[in-house]
């Protein structure tokens, strides 16, 4: 019986001790080795990319399995697969689906994304020497998943562009503005979608009244009552413009003191390539392995508690770090006070396994993204706000508030790009445009007083 499952795999391609933890695809014929080899060939990609590509390939395999013996030509299969993603597989009249897939329709952008992931995989597969020997003709007689995917790769190589042959000449002409034709259907363009920022009039309430330790809410001593960890991390987000994952990558040694200004100096290092804090190691990856038997947190699978993402920010040093730019600048002192109190009164030292991370949980292990999100949500709710993305009250709303604050105070596009560590100067354009509310207020002022 044909099936497809996602499993975890330890991958080695030589006799050294190096290994990768990868999401793998298990079928009735065993592990899909070509998929593992492809993931291993893209070591610079993060876990989110690996997970999404794995999901796309699994969808294609599930569709092939559900339509056993239906298609003789790969072109027919691929056209129908795209339509199944776009329109779903359920009959609207009676909600039946003989294929057993029961897929709901996906958005045009989602379909485009999935097709591009499959394109990347078949691009690579078509360049492998064994793809010819494992191809069967016609498609319906292919004896294994590997053979069928190699047949898809064959069409990729001979048609130059994956799924290009699914379009008519007229459709192709209409879509010739795209760099790559993959039979995608375009959704309506969105003009710089307005991002939601954390309400500026509520940030002090969040820090002072929201971040209270639930078990110590009635304490008189502020050092026992205040959640100094939550406060310190939130200052990094709201006044330093950090992403939440970047704050949790911090080592204790990454936070230093400017004694002259009484401010914190905070550096965010690349989780694996960043310079080691000790001389006997060159990189953080080597440091974590030699001193703690740990891996960079980006290398853990998403299902593992230590996993953290990394959005490839612009680094400003050959030691592979960027410096946090606090704004208002006095917040560098406020963060230092909160972090110092956290170290003095609340940080739990590692007991089960030693590690270098600055923020820990209640048993001394590195703080997790999930737990900080839980603490932040509780703090937001405590001051009477709902924890919702469209209100700007989630963790990422603080980064948006930081960007808007810089724009409101007249900082240039280049300044904002540097402060927010964007790779592209266009990434911060959203903070330079008026919000819908601000645009409305400006229109009303012009109506009343003139330009």
Q: What report would you give on this structure?
A:
- With 451 residues, the protein is mainly alpha-helical.
- The chain has two domains: 4-174, no CATH class; 200-438, Orthogonal Bundle (hpI Integrase, Chain A).
- The chain contains 17 helices and six strands.
- A three-stranded antiparallel beta sheet has the order 1-2-3.
- The longest helix has 20 residues, at 47-66.
- 31% of the residues are buried.
Strand order of the largest sheet: 1-2-3
What is the name of the CATH topology of the largest domain?
hpI Integrase, Chain A
Mean pLDDT: 86
Oligomeric category: single chain
In sequence order, what are the helices and strands, one letter per element? EEEHHHHHHHHHHEEHEHHHHHH
Looking at CATH, the homologous superfamily of the largest domain is Intergrase catalytic core
Number of strands: 6
User: Gyration radius, to the nearest Å?
Assistant: 26 Å
Weakly predicted, low-confidence segments: 133-138, 164-169, 171-184
What about the largest sheet? 3 strands, antiparallel
- Helical proportion, percent range: 40-55%
Tell me, briefly, the overall form: globular
Provide a count of the helices: 17
The percentage of residues in β strands lies in: 5-15%
Structural class of the helix and strand makeup? mainly alpha
| CATH architecture descriptor name of the largest domain | Orthogonal Bundle
- The termini sit apart by 72 Å
CATH class of the largest domain: Mainly Alpha
Number of domains: 2
């Amino acid at each position: 019986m044909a099936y497809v499952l996602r499993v975890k795999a330890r991958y080695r391609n030589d006799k050294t001790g190096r290994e990768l933890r990868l999401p793998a695809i298990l079928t009735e014929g065993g592990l899909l080795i070509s998929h593992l080899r492809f993931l291993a060939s893209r070591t610079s990609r993060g876990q989110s990319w690996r997970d999404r590509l794995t999901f796309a390939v699994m969808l294609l395999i599930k569709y092939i399995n559900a339509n056993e013996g239906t298609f003789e030509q790969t072109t027919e299969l691929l056209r129908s697969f795209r339509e199944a993603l776009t329109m779903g597989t359920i009959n609207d009249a009676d909600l039946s689906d003989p294929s057993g897939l029961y897929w709901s329709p996906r958005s045009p952008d989602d379909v485009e994304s999935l097709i591009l992931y499959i394109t990347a995989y078949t691009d690579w597969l078509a360049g492998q020497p064994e793809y010819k020997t494992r191809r069967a003709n016609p498609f319906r007689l292919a004896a294994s998943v590997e053979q069928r995917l190699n047949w898809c790769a064959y069409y990729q190589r001979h048609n130059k562009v994956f799924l290009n042959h699914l379009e008519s000449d007229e459709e192709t002409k209409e879509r010739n503005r795209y760099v790559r034709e993959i039979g995608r259907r375009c959704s309506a363009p969105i003009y710089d979608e307005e991002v939601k920022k954390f309400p500026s009039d509520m940030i002090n309430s969040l820090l002072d009244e929201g971040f209270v330790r639930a078990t110590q809410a009635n304490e008189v001593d502020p050092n026992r009552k205040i959640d100094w960890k939550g406060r310190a991390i939130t200052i990094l987000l709201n006044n330093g413009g950090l992403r939440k994952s970047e704050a949790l990558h911090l080592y204790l040694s990454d936070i230093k003191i400017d004694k002259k200004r009484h401010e914190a100096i905070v550096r965010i290092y690349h989780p694996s390539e960043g310079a080691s804090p000790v001389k006997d190691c060159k990189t953080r990856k080597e440091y974590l392995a030699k001193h703690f038997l740990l891996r960079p947190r980006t290398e853990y699978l998403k299902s593992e508690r230590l996993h953290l993402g990394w959005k490839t920010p612009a680094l400003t040093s050959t030691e592979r770090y960027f410096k946090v730019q606090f704004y208002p600048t006095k917040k560098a002192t406020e963060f230092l006070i909160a972090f110092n109190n956290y170290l003095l009164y609340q940080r739990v030292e590692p007991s089960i396994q030693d590690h270098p991370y600055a923020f820990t949980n209640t048993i001394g292990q590195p703080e997790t993204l999930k737990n900080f999100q839980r603490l932040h949500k509780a703090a937001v709710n405590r001051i009477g706000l709902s924890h919702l993305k469209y209100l700007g009250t989630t963790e990422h709303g603080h980064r948006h508030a930081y960007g808007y604050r810089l724009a409101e105070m007249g900082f240039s596009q280049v300044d904002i790009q540097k402060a927010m560590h964007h790779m592209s100067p266009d990434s911060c354009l959203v903070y330079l445009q008026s919000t819908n509310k601000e645009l409305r207020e400006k229109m009303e002022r012009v109506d009343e007083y003139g330009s």
